[in-house]
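[Archive record]
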Amino acid sequence: MNAADRHGPHQGTTAPAAPHALPPLVVGFDLDMTLLDTRPVIGAAYRVLAAESGVDIDVDLVVSRLGPPLPDELGNWFPAEQVPAIVDRYREIYPRFVAEQQVLPGVVESLAAVRAQHGRSIVVTAKHPDGARRHLDAAGFDVAELIGSAWAGGKATALTEHAASVYVGDHTADIAAGRQAGVYTVGVATGGITAEELAAAGADVVLDDLTAFPAVLDEYLRGRRLAALRDHLAGLGTLLVAFSGGADSAFLLAEAARVLGPDNVVAATAVSPSLPDSELTAAAEFAAGLGVRHLTPRTDEMARDGYRANAGDRCYFCKAELLDTLGPLAAELGMPHVATGTNADDAVAGFRPGIRAAHERGAVTPLRDAGLTKAQIRHASRELGLSTWDKPAAACLSSRIAYGIQISPDRLRRVERAEATLRAALTDAGIPVRNLRVRDLGDAGARVEVDRELVPAVAARTDLLAALDDFGTVTVDDRGFRSGAMNELLTEPSRYR
């Protein structure tokens, strides 16, 4: 048994972040008139107060200037000595009307965008925590943290304490708090403050509402993360890139060549039965276009018991073989660093034992450390004019073999032939498939995955699927192509048995 086989499969599935990685993304949001239109709720509570107290409160004026703490506003209508009792009464009344709130445009999508960027959303508001929590629960917002009773400098303190890098608010006081905390500050003109006033207060960007926030956040983070990537690469000096030819490693190779110079970068594409021949040719052409030296060392993952056995941790042994081959090669070249194209999405994608194997062998992950997502890598690749910017995902052929079925060169070649044959047939039939996988399920036959929108068209062409009759039963997955689909068999094996 190989040394990697002995210590591999039970070490966990992901590696800890590098010490020089960008800090985790935390985005702070104000509540009233940023996430929620709470004016109907507040107005209703003030009308009850006015009726009970006999005080003539201009409710329209109150709801036009939301932002400052409740006692400050009530102090405009009641004597100072009465304000504490009125505050208590207001908070007793308030919950009855929470259901009248309205979610502002773009909010749901903005919270989802933070999650997609692997970040945490926090709410920092002047509203009392109990009332703020009722609003969040009623709206169904799942936020990582709620900080209430924070105003002006208190908001700045909360943003600093929670390591926020972005704050979104509708009041000039929100902008002041963001600037005081040194974070990227977004103003939204959904409250009583105009866009011009928010800009004058120093907002980095001002939006009509949060509809455009996902794009603004992505642009801000992309610039920040690309700068971090380039700083990281510059500090490495020289680099050997584990170059599969996919979009991620291609972008890393191109950036390394730009930052370090082509002579200080080497691309290494491992040649083995799990690599389709077409991928090797494309990788060589790409490296040549960059003026980067391209090496093609042979790897022998088939010699590893854990790889051939094809249990759920197969990728550990594959990556171990790769790094155990590239590490000595880099040393021979005088290069102290080997980099993989692991990105930020990979690091949170669940079961990824290969990441652990690479970490244990000292591989660096500049894309992951910079926080770059797959979408951002594709966007930046397109801006650089890289041919790989829209290249479909192309995992190794072993990923097509269901766990528990022993991997052999013959099985890999059969899958490669099947995918090439089916792709050509679908193209000739006018079905422009982009992502295509033929999954070998052993005695259960084969499962074909294609782009979700093409599933009905492909499923209807049983004549084309007949080309795969040596697999036995062939089905088309109604959920369409998705990376890591074989991992689903670890938790729901009965679906395909």
In short: Residues 242 and 260 are 16 Å apart (CA to CA).
